[in-house]
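Hi all, posting the design record for the shared folder.

TITLE: backbone redesign
STEP: 1 of 1
STRUCTURE INPUT:
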């Protein structure tokens, strides 16, 4: 089973498998459905129905991690700099319905935000005809990740305001386990300038809220 999956990924890493792909927009924090040909996007307000879907983090496939530190596949199947967005593509290629949540972070992997949820079972029935254990699922996803390795351009596939080119590699403190290619919304990539601009925007928004509140109170007094 594994070799067939690997061959399929090598021959056609961007499969035309027709399956749902649910993605959360980084800039708006909204979840939306995107079909495989990217021709239709529908925003979803209520995501409660997806809470029982299986959660998978990039950490599970990280070659820099030990099993004790969170890796769930053999080191021979692991990759450097795994990204949740690539995992979402892999889940779609395998035929799973998938949600990509770019702002959700594993507590042991703070610098690499992002995770996916997949519909592994529905009403007690496995969604996939052959992938019926988490181990088999993880190995299949790792085959996709190995066939679609992360490059410096990979993070640009999930745009974030303020980044129009790939960022420089982060400064990794000694003894800290983290990748050198990270999602654009990673806290490890936030520069002092970005923090200053963000603080200014927040202060501006707070002033606007105060002004609106004062205007409402003045209107009430007039009435």
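Okay, here is what came back for every position:
SEQUENCE:
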């Amino acid at each position: 089973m594994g070799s067939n999956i690997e061959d399929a990924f090598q021959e056609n890493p961007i499969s035309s498998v027709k399956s749902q792909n649910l993605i959360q927009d980084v800039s708006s924090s909204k979840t939306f459905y995107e079909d495989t040909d990217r021709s239709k996007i529908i925003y979803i307000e209520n995501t409660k129905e997806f809470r029982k879907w299986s959660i998978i983090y990039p950490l599970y496939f990280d070659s820099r991690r030990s099993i004790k530190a969170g890796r769930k596949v053999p080191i021979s199947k692991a990759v450097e700099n795994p990204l949740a967005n690539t995992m979402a593509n892999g889940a779609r290629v395998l035929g799973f319905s998938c949600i990509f949540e770019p702002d959700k972070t594993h507590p042991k992997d703070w610098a690499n935000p992002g995770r996916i949820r997949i519909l592994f079972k529905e009403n007690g029935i496995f969604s996939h005809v052959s992938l019926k254990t988490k181990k088999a699922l993880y190995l299949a996803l790792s085959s996709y990740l190995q066939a679609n390795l992360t490059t410096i351009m990979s993070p640009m596939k999930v745009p974030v305001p303020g980044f129009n080119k790939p960022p420089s590699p982060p400064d990794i403190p000694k003894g800290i386990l983290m990748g050198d290619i990270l999602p654009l919304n990673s806290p490890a990539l936030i520069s002092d300038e970005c923090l200053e601009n963000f603080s200014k925007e927040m202060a501006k928004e707070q002033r606007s809220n105060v002004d609106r509140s004062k205007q409402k109170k003045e209107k009430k007094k007039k009435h």
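COMMENT: The chain has two domains: 2-157, 191-222.
Let me know if anyone wants the other runs.
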